[in-house]
Design goal:
The complex is a heterodimer of chains A (about 150) and B (about 110).
Chain A lengths: L11 E6 L3 E10 L5 E4 L13 E4 L4 E7 L1 H8 L4 H9 L3 E2 L10 H23 L5 H14 L1
Antiparallel strand pairs in A: 1-2, 1-5, 2-3, 2-6, 3-4
Chain B lengths: L1 H8 L4 E6 L4 E9 L5 E7 L3 E3 L5 E3 L8 E6 L4 E5 L7 H18 L1
Antiparallel strand pairs in B: 1-2, 1-7, 2-3, 3-6, 4-5
The chains are: A alpha+beta (about 150), B alpha+beta (about 110).
Protein name (chain B): Probable U6 snRNA-associated Sm-like protein LSm2
Family (chain B): Belongs to the snRNP Sm proteins family.
Main location (chain B): nucleus
């Protein structure tokens, strides 16, 4: 099935990836998995300048934004061309957080603690008699409030 | 397909999209496809403002400068915030039930 990416073909775009990186360049092609190819060099001094081409797998794309090149050049007038060129030909720069649900160490610690507490409460449960259902409920509630 | 047609009715309305990387974007919805990929125009973020020349300035997202429109991949959307008047919840619930019933009858 097609993605409505036709309007972006051969225009200057930036692509934000799931890892938080931003890539800027010219969109040259796409397919129906939303894999895209990007020509990286926006600023070309001579025709023979090497243009690197990057192929991005579709599942790693977060957003594709179309850029107005005239506006970009206006904004970039203040910056000298050399540094600009370096900036664009650089490897992608990381701007955003990753969209993948990476767990940090503190939450892992918290989960370990939680599991320990739960296993302890299980042993308590076995000691209680079957008739003490209400009592058990109260104990559980207090356990949760401690956590 | 229900929410696809719901989003179709929202075209040319202003929506706020929250992505999984905690980016919040507001814009007018231009098109939707079956994966709920969205196309937005007139993008603004919570911390962007219009400058003297009438251009949108994005402080925390400097590479948004000179942005015309935006294509958002549906798989990375966490929330879409809508105005209350855009959606009739009762109607939507009824439609969802009807669709479920249709599926049961067919399969």
């Amino acid at each position: 099935m097609s993605f409505n990416l036709k309007q972006y073909l051969n225009t200057f775009v930036f692509v934000v990836l799931t890892e938080g990186y931003v890539i800027e360049g010219k969109l040259v092609g796409f397919d129906n998995h939303m894999n895209i190819t990007i020509e990286k060099q926006i600023i070309q001094k001579q025709e023979n300048d090497i243009i690197s081409i990057e192929i991005i797998r579709g599942e790693n794309i977060v957003i594709i934004g179309e850029l107005d090149l005239e506006k970009l050049i206006k904004i970039n007038e203040k910056i000298d061309e050399e540094s600009l060129k370096k900036f664009y030909n650089n490897k992608a720069h990381k701007v955003y957080k990753s969209t993948k649900n990476k767990v940090d160490k503190t939450t892992i610690k918290a989960w370990k603690l939680f599991n320990q507490l739960r296993s302890k409460s299980d042993t308590k449960k076995r000691k209680l008699s079957i008739n003490d259902d209400e009592n058990m409920n109260i104990k559980r509630k207090t356990d949760l409030s401690i956590q | 397909m229900l929410f696809f047609s719901l989003f179709k009715t929202l075209i040319d309305q202003e929506v706020t999209v929250e992505l999984k990387n905690n980016l919040k974007l507001t814009g007018t919805l231009k098109s939707v496809d079956q994966y709920l990929n969205l196309k937005l125009d007139n993008i603004s973020t919570p911390d962007s403002f219009l400058d003297e020349n009438g251009d949108m300035e994005h402080i925390n997202n400097p590479h948004f400068a000179g942005l015309k429109n935006l294509f958002i991949r549906g798989s990375n959307i966490r929330y879409v915030h809508l105005k209350k008047s855009f959606v009739d919840c009762n109607l939507l619930q009824d439609a969802a039930r009807r669709e479920l019933a249709m599926e049961k009858r067919e399969g």
